[in-house]
Each structure stands twice: as structure tokens, then as C-alpha cells.
Write a structure and sequence with these properties.
The complex is a heterodimer of chains A (455) and B (92). With 455 residues, chain A is an alpha/beta fold. Chain A has 15 helices and 14 strands. The radius of gyration of chain A is 21 Å and the shape is globular. The mean pLDDT of chain A is 94. Chain B is α+β, with helices and mostly antiparallel strands and 92 residues long. Chain B starts with a strand and ends with a helix. Classes of the chains: A alpha/beta (455), B alpha+beta (92). The interface between A and B is medium-sized, with 25 and 27 residues.
């Protein structure tokens, strides 16, 4: 005979039904290193075969687990070895073709995104890295499900400013080539500093070099649950109490993710990798990180105090989550994507949340400038300047930072970019009009930072 | 095995035969009922049922479909979940 507590049951059902608790993604991370070869067509065939073999049941198993626990698993995804590495083995590399192979494989196993059209170039580019980067605009135009990420900087290596310069141009080209969809290609392209190799979230997921043959990584959601927990506290509860409440809530969210991740891994016959503790918002009402700031007592995201609120939130989520899982990894923190968070969208619309405030917030959150729509005529070097700033924040603070901005073609401040689904919609934000051109054109690498004299 | 334990949660307007209907379905699908609790919460009838499906020849999915169908027939909201999710979430 086992026992149950009806209060716990009601609480769990409420979290799922009313507060939008879900598993944001189960991501199959898969090595493609054994798919190398001299002929690119042959490599493509090997990649297709391997992905479809391993991911054959990913979708069905996830649906079964959804039923067993009555918890929605929103996305089923795949992350593979950075393709620059695989394509490099070919005498006749064709990265757009390889992107199409990934797209086809993803479509055939019913996953909505596949990540790993990637290169790690923080210290410099190999021939393959260069070719992959140059092929990004066409690859993202010609595919639906492929996501691309480039690591441009690290605390150990500094910032590859040649690549930062190039990415400013690549992002613009990618947006231009998908201009009929408000530059959606750029929403599937992210630049990183200190990129983790086990992140299950898109667009930055790929299968890192030190990872096993295959593993199952999980990303949970839960801003709605945290918001509701904070709202139910007394308005004069102090920060100790507030942090404790968030920790307890994060624990509950994470245990659910761990349970689902382990069950999925077991069903697929591969090891469980990590759970990513990120609070990932969606455009659904209430499922908003900005909403948590309001529940904490700020008038809106962007008010003075927002960075402090985010820092506390992020830290408390990690502290609560880490107790709930044996292996935590990925990005683990709160996401602040503008277009994917109803509260952020609203704050940006009202003009109270600015680009500069977002940048400040990225110093304490888990990712960076995420899903920010900017005017289509923003110069490439200005975009590179934004990337360089964000890379610098990550490099100096020894953390992951990222840039996913979309210069929306033919649109400017006052217009909207609309993507639909999880990618949401965003008002075009004002950017600084001063030139960064001469700075960016210097090229070279910003040297690795010193690890003492920390002031 | 805790994997074989299920929790059925039913909520809605109180009426005659709710427990009987659910119990009949579970019996038909060879689910052993180990515990039942019921309560009225904010005017809403709620019932929680702990079941064991280890002896059933039916799959979780088949049982759930049948249970949900009877919930629909009763006009009640019904959830059927493996008990593990509650155990994990609410215990350290």
C-alpha cells in the first residue's frame, strides 16, 4: 500500500493546467563524428541514416510520456556535432547540401528543430568553419528546421573579432534572404561566448566535442509557476523569503523534468545527459519572465531594479533546481527573449524596456540579447558592435552569453515583426545610431582576459 | 513498483454514481483500487483514487482512454497520471 497527499495532487495539476508548466524540450544529442568521409553525398547519406535511426522513436516516446504523466512536452528536438567539423572531411564540401540533409532528417522523424549547423571559432577559423559560416544565409533560407550557432568568444581565448565582423554581415544577409517572413532566418542563428556543448534549447543546441555518442537532454519551462508562487506571497515578504519560495518552486519544476528526461532516455536506450534549469517563457498569457518581475513588485520589465530582480531569480532557480537533479547543464537560468515573452513584448511596445537595459540584464541572466527585432537598415558593423559587447560580457564574467537579433528587412522602429508560434512577435527596437565601423574593421582577436585582479 | 501506481483525479459537479462508474471501468480494466479520498472544494466535488495497474493486461494508454471516456460521460474533468510525478515533485 502506498500513500498519497491530495494537496500535492491538486498543486501539480494546477501547475500544469493553470500555470503552464510543461517540459519545453526533450533533445536527442547525437554525435555525427563517424559520418565523416571524402565525398559529401556519401557523408550526407550517413548523416541521414544515423539521425533517422537514433531519432526514429523520439516523437512517439515523448507522446507516450506526455500521456503517462499528463504533462505537455512542447518540443522534440535533435542536436548534432557541429557540422563544420563533419563537412571539413569532404574533398568537395557543400554545407548547404548538408543543411538540407539535416532538415530532411528532422522532418522525417517529426522534430521541429535540429541544431548543430555550427562552428566553434573563438580563437580562429579553419577552412571548414569559414565555408560553413559563409553558407549560413543560404542554408537557413533553404531549410525550415535547421538552427545555426557560432561560438565567437570564450573566457580562455578572448574574442575572435574577425568572426564577429563577419557575423554582422551574415546575420543581415540571412534576414534579407528570408525577408518575406520578417527575417526569420536570423531567429534561427545565434552567436555565443562560452557556449555549452549540452544545451537542449534552440537555436543554440549542438552536440559538444566532449559528449558521449548519444544522450538525452531536457529543458523545462515554468515562468508561470514561479510567477504564481511569487504572487501568492505577501507583498511585504522580504527577499530571503522570496528567494526561498523561488527555490522551492524551481525544485518542483526540475524534478518533473528529471523524471521525464530519465524516462525518455530509458525508452530510447541512451544515457540521460543533463537537465537545463532555464525558465523559458512563451508568448502565452502568464508564462512570462517579465511577469515574475511584476509579481516581485516592479511596475514593468525595464524599471530600475530589473537587473537585481533577474539576478536573484536566476540564482534562486539554480539553487532550487540543482537539488532536484543529478546532472544539471546547458544554459540553466532565466531566458529573456523579447519576442517570446508576452510581458517583454508589452514593455518593449510601451518603450519602457530598451535595448540598453536588455544588455545590462544579460550580465546576470543565462543567455543574452535574445529575439530582439531591430531596424532592417542597421549597419552590419553596428550589429557586430552589439555582438562584440555581448561577447565581452560573457568573456569577462566567465559565463555564457549569446546574441540572437533580427534586423527586420524594410521595417523600422514603430513596426512589428511577426513570427508566430513559440517565436512570437516583437516591436522593432531602437538601436544606438553612432557608428562602430572603424572599431569593428580593425579585425584580429581581443586577447584572452586576465584571471586575477578581479575588480 | 511505484511505476505501476496511478492516480485518478476527478472533479466537477457532485452527483449519483460517480464513484460507481469509475470503479466499474477500473474493475473492467483489471486495475486494483488501493485507496480513495473525496472532498468538496469550493463547491466542487473532488475524488482522488490510487490504483495499481501491475496485474492488468491492458496498457496504460488503453486504461487511460477508458477512464477519460467515462469522465466525459459523467461530464467531469478527469486526470489519470502515474503516481511517480507527485512523489518526485513533492519529496526531497
Amino acid at each position: 500500500m502506498s500513500f498519497f497527499n491530495e494537496k500535492s495532487i491538486i498543486e501539480t495539476i494546477n501547475m500544469i493546467k493553470v500555470q503552464n508548466l510543461d517540459i519545453r524540450t526533450v533533445t536527442l544529442a547525437l554525435s555525427l563524428r563517424d559520418c565523416c568521409g571524402e565525398d559529401v553525398k556519401e557523408v550526407g547519406e550517413k548523416i541521414y541514416e544515423k539521425i533517422t535511426k537514433y531519432a526514429k522513436n523520439l516523437y512517439n516516446f515523448a507522446c507516450e510520456i506526455e500521456e503517462e504523466y499528463s504533462i505537455p512536452i512542447i518540443n522534440k528536438r535533435i542536436a548534432v556535432t557541429p557540422i563544420s567539423l563533419i563537412g571539413e572531411s569532404c574533398k568537395n564540401p557543400d554545407y548547404v547540401y548538408l543543411a538540407k540533409v539535416l532538415d530532411k532528417a528532422a522532418q522525417d522523424v517529426n522534430v521541429n528543430f535540429i541544431g548543430g549547423f555550427s562552428a566553434l571559432v573563438e580563437k580562429g577559423c579553419t577552412k571548414g568553419d569559414d565555408l560553413l559560416i559563409e553558407s549560413i544565409p543560404q542554408a537557413l533560407k533553404q531549410t525550415q528546421r535547421v538552427c545555426s550557432s557560432i561560438n565567437l568568444a570564450s573566457t580562455k581565448a578572448g574574442i575572435n573579432m574577425n568572426a564577429v565582423k563577419k557575423m554582422g554581415s551574415i546575420i543581415k544577409q540571412t534576414a534579407m534572404l528570408t525577408k518575406e517572413q520578417d527575417g526569420i532566418g536570423a531567429a534561427k542563428l545565434v552567436c555565443f561566448c562560452n557556449v555549452p556543448g549540452d544545451n537542449p534549447f534552440m537555436a543554440g543546441a549542438f552536440h559538444g566535442y566532449g559528449e558521449p555518442e548519444a544522450s538525452l537532454n531536457v529543458g523545462v519551462s515554468g515562468p508561470g509557476v514561479v510567477r504564481s508562487a511569487v504572487e501568492n506571497l505577501a507583498k511585504d515578504a522580504d527577499f530571503g523569503e522570496l528567494a526561498n519560495k523561488i527555490k522551492q518552486t524551481a525544485f518542483k519544476i526540475t524534478t518533473t523534468g528529471e523524471l521525464v528526461g530519465r524516462r525518455m532516455a530509458e525508452k530510447m536506450g541512451i544515457p540521460f545527459g543533463i537537465i537545463d534549469l532555464s525558465l523559458a517563457p512563451t508568448p502565452a498569457v502568464g508564462d512570462s519572465v517579465a511577469g515574475i518581475f511584476q509579481a516581485m513588485g516592479l511596475e514593468h520589465a525595464g524599471a530600475h531594479g530589473t537587473t537585481a530582480a533577474l539576478a536573484m531569480l536566476n540564482d534562486a532557480v539554480k539553487k532550487g533546481g540543482i537539488m532536484a537533479s543529478s546532472y544539471v547543464g546547458g544554459l540553466s537560468g532565466a531566458f529573456i527573449p523579447v519576442s517570446e515573452d508576452a510581458g517583454m513584448i508589452e514593455a518593449a511596445k510601451q518603450g519602457v524596456l530598451t535595448f540598453d537595459k536588455l544588455e545590462a540584464m544579460t550580465c546576470v541572466c543565462s543567455v543574452g540579447l535574445d529575439m530582439i527585432a531591430i531596424p532592417g537598415d542597421t549597419p552590419e558593423t553596428t550589429i557586430s558592435g552589439m555582438i562584440a559587447d555581448e561577447m565581452a560580457i560573457g568573456m569577462i564574467n566567465k559565463k555564457t552569453t549569446a546574441v540572437r537579433i533580427i534586423p527586420v528587412p524594410d521595417k523600422t522602429v514603430g513596426d512589428y515583426a511577426v513570427y508566430g508560434g513559440l517565436l512570437g512577435e516583437a516591436p522593432i527596437m531602437k538601436v544606438n545610431s553612432l557608428s562602430s565601423e572603424t572599431f569593428i574593421n580593425r579585425g584580429g582577436r581581443i586577447p584572452e582576459p586576465i584571471h586575477s585582479l578581479n575588480n | 513498483m511505484s511505476e505501476d501506481k496511478i492516480i485518478v483525479t476527478i472533479s466537477g459537479k457532485d452527483g449519483v454514481g460517480i464513484v460507481a462508474e469509475i470503479a466499474t471501468v477500473l474493475a473492467k480494466y483489471e486495475v486494483n483500487i488501493e485507496d480513495i479520498k473525496q472532498t468538496i472544494m469550493q463547491g466542487c466535488f473532488m475524488m482522488f483514487l490510487l490504483g495499481d495497474i501491475s496485474k492488468s493486461k491492458y496498457s496504460f494508454k488503453e486504461i487511460k482512454e477508458a477512464v477519460c471516456a467515462s469522465g466525459q460521460k459523467l461530464g467531469m474533468e478527469i486526470w489519470m497520471q502515474k503516481k511517480e510525478i507527485f512523489d518526485k515533485m513533492h519529496t526531497i
